[in-house]
Amino acid sequence: MTGDAAESAAADGGRYGLVLALLVAGYLVGALATDTWVSLLTVLLYLGALVLAIRAARLGRPLVWGLRVGATVGSAGALAVLLSNPGNGFRGVAALWLALILGITVVLVVRHILRHRVVTLQTIAGALSAYLLIGLMFAEIYTGMSRLGTAPFFANGQVPDTATVQYFSFTTLTTLGYGDFTAARNAGRAVAVLEALLGQIFLVTLVARLVSNFGNERPPRRGEDG
């Protein structure tokens, strides 16, 4: 790696190590505790990851402000729902909003790391962050489906709390398929299959490609900054 390339990588790499730490903290908090304050902390951690991804993405100012305002207003609404505990319908909508936040963060992270001229540790951290984001996003989707649906989401009527949906999401994403939790309805099964396919495609195409090119500089594509 040349000196100029190293400088460019350091400047453009983004703080994906911190993003990864926030996401791991969010996962552990949700997996180990179920109190209301835990849900509030999780929302703040996800919002922090989005803010860092927006800063790294080098978007136009109007889009940056739009994302920041939308994320702030929507997250404030989600926090209000979690504090007031109005019922399954509102909590389901709040979960789907969090899924949207996580999905936007995935897009921003992947968009940015694919523009890295040199694959660095920050690039790898960004790819791992995106992988975690996908699992957390689907966990929120499952939560929203269970809250908004009239029938139990899991077969045998297991309670879809935060720890359970995260466990189900990541065993699906990694295709471990333990079988202790399965979706009871066609909609849940379809989303689970989509998550499994997305997880495998992500690992085989993006993560494997980045790891194999670690430390190497690639030529700029048309339209990229030098």
From TrEMBL:
The chain crosses the membrane at residues 16-33, 39-57, 64-83, 95-114, 121-142, 190-212. Keywords: Ion channel, Ion transport, Membrane, Transmembrane, Transmembrane helix, Transport. Gene3D superfamilies: 1.10.287.70. InterPro entries: K_chnl_dom. It comes from the Bacteria. GO terms for biological process: monoatomic ion transmembrane transport. Residues 160-212 form the Potassium channel domain. SUPFAM superfamilies: Voltage-gated potassium channels (SSF81324). Pfam families: Ion_trans_2. This is Potassium channel family protein.
